[in-house]
Amino acid sequence: MNQLHNYWLTLAKLFTAWSALTDRLEAGWYRLGRWLVDVFKHLLFRMDVHYLADLPNGARILAANHPSTIDPFLMTTLVPEQVSILITEILFKVPIVGASLRRTGHIRVDAGKGGTAMLSALQKLAEGRTVGIFPEGVISPITGGMHRAHSGLARLALASGKPVIPVGIAIEKDKITRIRTRVDGIEEIGTWYFQGGYAVTLGEPLTFSGDADDRQQVARVSEQLVSAIEALSAVSAARLAARRRRLLSVIIRPWSIPIGYLARLIPGYIPLSDI
Asked: Cα angle vertex 251, ends 248, 257, to 5°?
């Protein structure tokens, strides 16, 4: 009996050691990825990030509009801790990118399996981790505003009780690059942003309590959060427009023009006038 007990005790210790090792590897990959994003964001973008309130301690939910494909990468730089972001399955199928997302603890959202992603997000929050989400589930309209949000954000806020930080993002729409590609045999159009101003406003934390299965309450919470995100996005857009009007905003970085023209040479490039 003692021998069997020692056997299971050894297995438990090995499992604990393996979990700790994988956590360290994940954190290491994440730090490397965020460092690379930090380097590129300073080279390519005029970042303008404002915090309207102190960030609450502990696990929290970052909820943002989604004007470009690069938003998940830049979201990782908004807070000091590791962020696990809910990301569409398409990006997980892209070579190199998908492997990196898996190794850095992000959450895959498969079509028709939102419940599985929700459970993963709740587990991360219960472990004290921060979760990022784009409630529209798709790229925001180029003309501005947001698509109707899915219920996931509201349900996550209600089920976890963790504070939600609404995040409003604004970019220079005339510098968006649309690129048509095929991923896993399916045609996708990426809304890429390679240079320009990138304004972000993080608002006051919002906390909710209630039944995550109550559709009416979920709808009310979702509406409140979307309104907050849209308002913050408008604040970011106004700040971005004001900055463009300033004299210093006309200073051109030496690599900005080549990047703008090189983007047009990418196979699948779609002029904005064709959208």
From this structure: 150
The Cα–Cα gap between 194 and 255 comes to: 11
The number of residues in the chain equals 275
Strands ordered across the beta sheet of 186-193? 186-193, 176-183, 269-270
Strand pairing category for 176-183 and 164-171 = unpaired
| Whether pLDDT at 240 is above 50 | yes
User: Please, are residues 162 and 125 in contact by the beta-carbon 8 Å criterion?
Assistant: yes
Of the pLDDT bands very low, low, confident and very high (cuts 50, 70, 90), residue 212 is very high
Q: Return the exposure string of 167-193: e unless at least 16 CB atoms fall within 10 Å of the residue's CB, then b.
A: bbbbbbeebbbbbeeebeeeebebbbb
User: Which residues, including other chains, have CB under 8 Å from residue 60's CB and lie 6 or more apart?
Assistant: 79, 130, 131, 162, 163, 164, 165, 205
CA distances from 249 to 38, 50, 169 (A): 21, 18, 19
Q: Give the gyration radius of the chain's Cα atoms.
A: 20
CB 172 within 8 A of CB 261: no
Distances (CA, A) of 253 to 41, 53, 73, 196, 248: 13, 32, 22, 10, 11
Instruction: Spell out the residues 6+ positions from residue 153 whose beta carbon is closer than 8 angstroms to its own.
Output: 61, 63, 133, 135, 164, 222, 225
pTM here? 0.81
Q: Which of 64, 60, 65 is nearest to 79 (CA)?
A: 60
What DSSP string describes 32-76?
A: HHHHHHHHHHHHHEEEEEEESSPPPSS--EEEE---STTHHHHHT
d(CA 212, CA 28): 34
